[in-house]
Amino acid sequence: MKYLTEKRTLKHLLFIFLFFNFNTIKAQNTNVNQDPKFEQLLNEKRKLNSSITINNRYKIQIFNGTSDASKKTLIQFKKENKNYDATIIFSTPLYKVWVGNFKTRIEAERNLNLLKKKYPSAILIKPSKQ
Prior knowledge:
- This protein is of the alpha+beta class.
- Helix content is 54%, strand content 20%.
- The chain contains 4 helices and 4 strands.
- Strands 2-3-1-4 form a 4-stranded antiparallel β-sheet, sandwiched between helices.
- Strand 2 and strand 3 form a beta hairpin.
């Protein structure tokens, strides 16, 4: 009886060993085929995230209003000003279009004066982490 129990235990151990061994081999031979556009999308996402982050830099708010109007303002602004970063921020209940990423207040005020010609309601802001 003891012999049969040992034999059964040995079979179970052999089965477990083979099962895990084959799974390990299978995992080692796995190939990942990644679409080349994935890396491009990832870089675009990183670029968007970096423009949205709130840091110790100044920004200019050129619009404050509804979602549709903010999208139109952003598209128009980007067509006319390719050298500025611009994004839409939602702050309940309004959408805001923020422009630029200025290190100093002087630099931001210079750009504010230029942008006020086209966007008279533009204001200088320094976003804070809340």
